[in-house]
Amino acid sequence: MTPAIYAIVTAYDEAERIGATLATLAAAFPGARLLVGDDGSSDATPQIARAAGARVVRSERVIGKGGAATLAAAAALREARAAQGTKVAGDADEARAIFLLCDGDLGESAAALSALTSAIERGDADLAVAAFGTRVGGGFGLALGFARWAIRRRCGLQTVAPISGQRALSEQALADVLPFAHGFGMELGMTIDAVRAGHRVAELELELSHRASGRTLAGFAHRGGQLVDFARAYLARGRLARR
Q1: N or C: which end of the chain has fewer CB atoms below 10 A?
Q2: With a cut of 70, which residues of the chain have pLDDT below it?
Q3: What is the number of other CB atoms lying within 10 angstroms of the CB of residue 202?
Q4: Virtual torsion, Cα 85, 1, 173, 152, nearest 10 deg
Q5: N- to C-terminal Cα separation, the chain
Q6: What is the DSSP pairing of strand 127-132 with strand 167-170?
């Protein structure tokens, strides 16, 4: 039996692109359950998401990406396990679900994410991460460099895309990494927690597009906030002796 797919989209004020992202996911993953973790959006994001057929798991105030994603992912995990409870015992292993995490601003490029779920279904990895084939925007690489260093320091894993939000996980891997780290530390913390739990991590280069922050005052403020959250996730995960 083909595993059930749960697509969990994190969003904050993504009214312009959330509809296209969800429509693309619905087409790329027929029969998938769509959930949106809405981080207290003040625009029409939740209404558009519901109209697109998604279940919206919403925080009424801004709690950060990690918090909003945790609410939606935990809801998806409960739903998957409840659905498995209706299966006959002999089908339990075949009924395992795959969980896809992605950002709400991918638009039509979200179709490429099928490569991530395929890697999990084939058993190639327990956590599959998308590395953007074409870099868009960004600053001078300080936050990204710190994230790579932090993951290597805490669990020994060398990464290309340590902060990519486009990920697929097996059911057990998701259970082992919840709750996610606060805010933008979500992906960094997830990777460390997955490796420490014994899960295999693979990175796949995909052609994706999103709304990137540039070298503007707002962009630098965004990356400064990221760096703070990365440091929090790093410090919360203790030490790993040098190898």
Answers
A1: C
A2: 86-95, 134-140, 210-223, 239-243
A3: 14
A4: 180
A5: 42
A6: antiparallel
pLDDT at residue 58 in the model? 97
Residues in contact with 137: Cβ distance below 8 Å, sequence separation at least 6, in sequence order? 212, 213, 214, 219
Residue 104: C-alpha distances to residues 15, 107, 175 (Å): 9, 7, 22
Give the whole-angstrom CA distance, residue 193 versus residue 195: 6
- Going across the sheet that includes 5-11, the strands are 55-59, 33-39, 5-11, 98-103, 167-170, 127-132, 201-206
Concatenated DSSP letters of 30-91: TTPEEEEEEE--SSSHHHHHHHTTPEEEEESS---HHHHHHHHHHHHHHHHHHHHTTS-GGG
Q: What is the pLDDT of residue 186?
A: 98
3-class state of residue 239 by DSSP: coil
Q: What is the pLDDT of residue 91?
A: 47
Give the separation between CA 233 and CA 127, rounded to whole angstroms.
18
Residue indicated by tokens 């990464």: 159
* Neighbouring residues of 132: CB distance < 8 A, sequence distance ≥ 6: 161, 164, 205, 206, 207, 208, 210
Residue 170: closest CA among 190, 154, 148, 150: 190
Q: Which two tokens stand for residue 225?
A: 């906030």
pLDDT of residue 84: 87
Whole-model pTM? 0.90
**d(C-alpha 224, C-alpha 227), whole Å:** 5
